[in-house]
Specification:
Strand order of the largest sheet: 1-2-5-4
Number of helices: 9
Shape: globular
Radius of gyration: 21 Å
Structural class: alpha/beta
Helix content: 25-40%
Strand content: 15-25%
Number of strands: 9
Order of helices and strands: HEHEHEEEEHHEEEHHHH
Largest sheet: 4 strands, mixed
Low-confidence stretches: 1-7, 146-150, 252-258, 293-298
Amino acid sequence: MVAAKTIDKNELITNKLITLIETGVKPWAKPWHTAQYQNFLTSHIYRGINPLLCQIDLILNNWEHPFFLSYQQAKAQGWFVKKGSKATWIRWGGVYAAEVEDPQTKETKKEYRNGCRWFSVFNIACLDDTKSDRKIAERLETFSPKKSEDFNAIPEVEAFINSLQLARHFGGPIACYIPSSDTIRMPKPSDFNSVEGFYSTYLHEIVHRTGHSSRCDRPLDNPKGSTGYAFEELIADLGSAFLCNHFGINYSLENHTSYLNSWLQVLSSDKTAFLKAAQKANEAFNYLIGETAVNESE
């Protein structure tokens, strides 16, 4: 039963994603909001794949705000879900302790396992507050979105990048990671339309760098145009989105329209490909954040 539910979620998310990509939209690469995706009441910032899952539904439904909460949380406020509204599914995953019996000694011991659960949440656009004294609009006023100015370096991101001690070269028209020399090549910051575009592209290449055999060890020798190449690009795009979300960067990636058909091919042939790529991207994110001193507790 659990496996069947997982497959249903994979198909649900992938079908939504394909719908967006077929219209030329990459939901993880659109600067729709200056506020981060989060729980509307607790202000808990969504991490990992969850901001992307929320953004897919936000774009498809033309919702205005990136704020969500559970059915029970809404009910406790006197807010009700509007008829016909559909939930957004987000994931919780992590390590948990389980008590298991040793088959030989019959002794009970603690065993750590990886687990994942799905939770349904609703965007605030799906809620009706007319019968409650607590108004959604009043809560919205408490949020103050971050603003960014073009070409002003972001100190926190610069500190993160410098801590990696990576080999890099600025200049020229190409952004790429070269595995053979473990080097990142980037155009000059002034060549980008915005500071967000610069950092999102830079972080994209930094995620590629985690694929080196000395780090997360992913295949980096796939020929351009192959499924493996497109899959690695998807990992880097998602990883960049995770990092931008972590640092609060409101970003727009450079156009990668040449990859869209390859991504469609990957997603259409394997309904779990998006979540597989997200898992690899999250591994890269955890490796990078764990390697630096800018980590924050969840």
